[in-house]
Amino acid sequence: MRQLYFLTGATTYLTSDEGETHGWVPQECIDWVGLYSDKIRKPSDAPIHFRWKEKSDIQVAGMVAFYIVTKGKHPFGPRIDQLKDLHDDNPVGLSKLSDHVVEDLLSQMLGRDLDERPYVEQALKHPFFLSFEEQMKFVQAVVNEPKFINYASEHRISLLPTDWKRVFGHEDLNTLCRGGHRSPSEYNGSRYTDCLRLIGNTCQHPDGKLRQLKKKTPATSSLEHYFLQLFPTLPLVLHQIIREDPKWKTLPALKEFFPVIDRRKRPIQTKAYTMYQKEQKKIADGEDTS
């Protein structure tokens, strides 16, 4: 049976049983010095040190998610290479994923640096987990931040078509611009800030435009759905740009999508930790704990 100990701050955990864990242990829980040493090790010297952090589960969850998505593969390669690739922060399998949204999420979850890994609450705000409505709420929140729009206009945006106006097509672009302050010719097809403004204006003033759009499909249930069918990676690209500079995460409209987590303000209180506290108090009082 595994024994769980909660150390200072209730953020580090210690367990004593290695079990069948090869390839499924987070980077910070492995004795890398011992593994890279040329000294002869005792059979009882396990290379795994279960000093578990809360974010350790995030990396393991990323491994399991990759295993599911790829139907049985490991993100750090074949078994013979897994420990080395884990040590080198080299999830070789990510480059083989065709879904950029999944790749981006797992690249964060599998990261070596604990400080760079998201907490659960933060991971659940990634575009992968957001509904169409939530993704478009995020896009509109970006539109409502002029400072970010000005910054994004100078940023090289990848994973998106080079000319967004062509994606809409002439007829749909005319429909979306109808009733607005700008004609289709006034929009620059290479500037996604213009695209964001058009999307924001359309969602605020839909005026029955969905029914007239030519590029919608029978499954298109809303304008939000329509925009994401044409630009499925747009929320992801915006998410990536914002992550590059922490100051954007603090903008009022974007705080909801980039929660700040500080576990020090809310200690983890569990039955095991309560028992540990009682034992420590008995020891301090000189009582027999045997």
UniProtKB/TrEMBL annotation:
<keyword id="KW-0808">Transferase</keyword>
<dbReference type="InterPro" id="IPR010513">
    <property type="entry name" value="KEN_dom"/>
</dbReference>
<dbReference type="GO" id="GO:0004674">
    <property type="term" value="F:protein serine/threonine kinase activity"/>
</dbReference>
<dbReference type="Pfam" id="PF06479">
    <property type="entry name" value="Ribonuc_2-5A"/>
</dbReference>
<keyword id="KW-0418">Kinase</keyword>
<dbReference type="InterPro" id="IPR011009">
    <property type="entry name" value="Kinase-like_dom_sf"/>
</dbReference>
<dbReference type="GO" id="GO:0051082">
    <property type="term" value="F:unfolded protein binding"/>
</dbReference>
<dbReference type="InterPro" id="IPR000719">
    <property type="entry name" value="Prot_kinase_dom"/>
</dbReference>
<keyword id="KW-0547">Nucleotide-binding</keyword>
<dbReference type="GO" id="GO:0005524">
    <property type="term" value="F:ATP binding"/>
</dbReference>
<dbReference type="GO" id="GO:1990604">
    <property type="term" value="C:IRE1-TRAF2-ASK1 complex"/>
</dbReference>
<dbReference type="GO" id="GO:0006397">
    <property type="term" value="P:mRNA processing"/>
</dbReference>
<dbReference type="GO" id="GO:0004521">
    <property type="term" value="F:RNA endonuclease activity"/>
</dbReference>
<dbReference type="InterPro" id="IPR045133">
    <property type="entry name" value="IRE1/2-like"/>
</dbReference>
<keyword id="KW-0067">ATP-binding</keyword>
<dbReference type="GO" id="GO:0036498">
    <property type="term" value="P:IRE1-mediated unfolded protein response"/>
</dbReference>
<dbReference type="InterPro" id="IPR038357">
    <property type="entry name" value="KEN_sf"/>
</dbReference>
<protein>
    <submittedName>
        <fullName>Serine threonine- kinase endoribonuclease IRE1</fullName>
    </submittedName>
</protein>
<dbReference type="GO" id="GO:0070059">
    <property type="term" value="P:intrinsic apoptotic signaling pathway in response to endoplasmic reticulum stress"/>
</dbReference>
<keyword id="KW-0732">Signal</keyword>
